[in-house]
Predict the structure.
Amino acid sequence: MKIGILTGGGDCPGLNAVIRGIVRIVHNNGGQSLGLLEGWRGALSGDFTPLHPENTDDIIFKGGTILGSSRTNPYKEPGDVEKLIATFHRMDLDAIVAIGGDDTLGVASKLFNDHQFPIIGCPKTIDNDLSSTDQTFGFDTSINIVMDAIDKLRTTTESHRRVMVVETMGRHAGWIACYSALSSAADFVLVPEADVDLDRMCNLLKSRRERGKQYGIVVVSEGAKLSDEYVTLHLEKDDFGNVQLGGIGESVAKIIEERTGIETRSVTLGHLQRGGAPSAYDRILGTRLGIHAGRLVVEKNFGKMVALRGTDIVAVPLADAIGEMKTLDSAIMQEMEEFYHD
Ligand code: F6P
């Protein structure tokens, strides 16, 4: 048995733990693993690096992915899917494990449906927005990074009696913003799932100031929507048609300063949220997903994605796992709401 492993889309802490888990299971069953470099680009070109327990046993603490990543979409250019299949046969591979988000797994699902391609998916994203899995690895590390950043921003914000607006990633789901706001006792949070109520936010900041709180922290998800008059449009798109988000924090800071008269600054945490070593939780979740993805390969149970359900790792059909974004549920939003009353 010879398998290819690839990591596609935005990188995320815990990817190396998954790779290590898969390689271990394949090795335990007498197989060989190759790392396809830079996502689907490596599956097209055949660029690879050999993987075995000796060179993957100590990668668990590293952030990012030792295989590199890209947002290459083999369904974009005509002929690329055929090229990918030809490369797969030329390399004498028996299966591919694709570790990625909605886009990478969407390609995996199409390859399975259209060509019965022997493929297994493993969900990853700091955004935590994939349906069919209770949580994605990378999310825990990410919210800890944001929480740590807010703890640091709090001291300078308080010294200067300012409001600090912290813009987080997460695309069109507010998981990172909501969880990091809750863990940091932020004064207000703006998420894509709820209407942005600027009046309420500004009134709250003003009344808290009047009652003696000397500073304010507002967390804004990059995907939250302001009305057209405030929006800065970023039209850059990737191979999958995703619009590049970012910049809303600055607009929100201007609005707060104008409406409240309180000096306000903004910080966009950006790619810091994906960097550095994975948390213990993400190392363990990544390792478990890798082990189960490896087992599915050994069983030739293709067209599946490994997923976390409760505390179990289960296999779900790839087709069911993609397409639907998992947004913040109403229960957590209501809990969050309790802290935004006057
Ligand atoms: O999907 C993960 C993510 O980090 C999003 O939160 C963010 O909008 C996007 O990727 C950034 O992508 P890039 O690394 O291409 O700038």
